Amino acid sequence: MVSIQDQIVLVTGASSGIGAACARAFAQTGAKLVLTARRFDRLQQLAQTLEQEFKTQIYPLQLDVCDRSQVEGVLKALPEPWQAVDILINNAGLSRGLDKVHQGSVQDWEEMIDTNIKGLLYMTRLLVPGMVDRGRGHIINIGSIAGHQAYPGGAVYCATKAAVRTLSAGLKMDLLGTPVRVSEIDPGIVETEFSQVRFHGDTERAKRVYESTTPLTADDIAEVVVFCTTRPPHVNVSEIVVLATDQAAATMVHRRSV
Questions:
Q1: Does domain 8-249 have CATH number 3.40.50.1000?
Q2: Can you tell me the distance from the alpha carbon of 2 to that of 227, in angstroms, rounded to the nearest whole number?
Q3: How big is the chain by its Cα radius of gyration, in Å?
Q4: Which sequence positions are flagged as catalytic?
């Protein structure tokens, strides 16, 4: 295990779920954290908690990764001590609805495409050139089992995560010959706010996604992310698919009888 103490880690979508779990996991390593999210009140609360608990340095940023001009402005305005980002966690992402394509909401499609694909690209384009110039860096893209296997009602979301998979592969090719590493983490069912977001705040419907099964937790994924970043420089963990023991494929989940 290689120490990443004092390295600068930037996590998008850090106010909840896998992003917040990654923030906590990296805080324990002694890394310095740039945490971004749209919900700044939750982000500030998380930052204060981690600073007090782990005595680490944290720079919270209100940021909507879908807004290219905002991404450019905010990242270029980072104070000098925070500009040399060593590790980028492209975590911000979401799913909306479970409609068939011919019945789907165009607004939902645009939100998924803007966040899951364009937001990832904006962050990557702004931060990776510095990594190449400095001769060090690591990009972690949070994908999904949905990027490997489509399922009914999820065509557009699955397409965005398939794009993350292809972009990760292409980015590795583009960075060949540099020390900059690219890893893709593809979780299966993880109990976070994901389903609440998908169902536009329908808490009861969201709960049913995880009923009678044991899903992954956000901490499970954060542990995998930290593992990737703490390998020796010559080791690039290219891709990891992480499923709950109760899941065999995107739509195959074992549920226990009550």
A1: no
A2: 9
A3: 18
A4: 157
